[in-house]
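Today's session is about reading a structure prediction critically. Students often jump straight to the picture, but the first step is always the sequence itself: look for stretches that repeat, for charged clusters, for runs of hydrophobic residues. Only then move on to the predicted structure, which in these notes is written as discrete structure tokens rather than atom positions. Here is the chain we will use throughout the hour.
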Amino acid sequence: MRNYDLTPLYRSAIGFDRLAQLAEHAASNKGNSGYPPYNIELINEHRYRITMAVAGFTMDELDITSEGDKLLVKGTKAEEKEARKYLYQGIAERGFERTFQLADYVTVIGANLENGLLNIDLKREIPEAMKPRKIEIATSRLLDAE
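Below is the predicted structure for this chain, in token form.
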């Protein structure tokens, strides 16, 4: 595994210490097998959609949890009442747990399950205090008057 020195970034960027944690998390790939397959789609400047292929799972077997900057999607298959004997089993029927790292101010606004696809809609809502604002430049005479 490669180690990256992010020291030059810290010299000119304030508050990006989380970047090192994100890079480390992405590089570690903690056993994510790629199941179930998913897409991340940019709808517009502030909206995103995660689409996961969860064929065979019912709504009762899926759980979506958003806590802080993490989104956890978990699928738990119910135990079958009768054992089946497969000649060939190409459809995965195993449980899964997939974690997504959310950027600041990104929240889940809804989810739906349709035709074996789980769609999770997200929105970035930047607080007014964080939006750019115009700073008026005062002359020294105005500052002295106050």
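Discussion point for the tutorial: DSSP finds three helices and seven strands in the chain.
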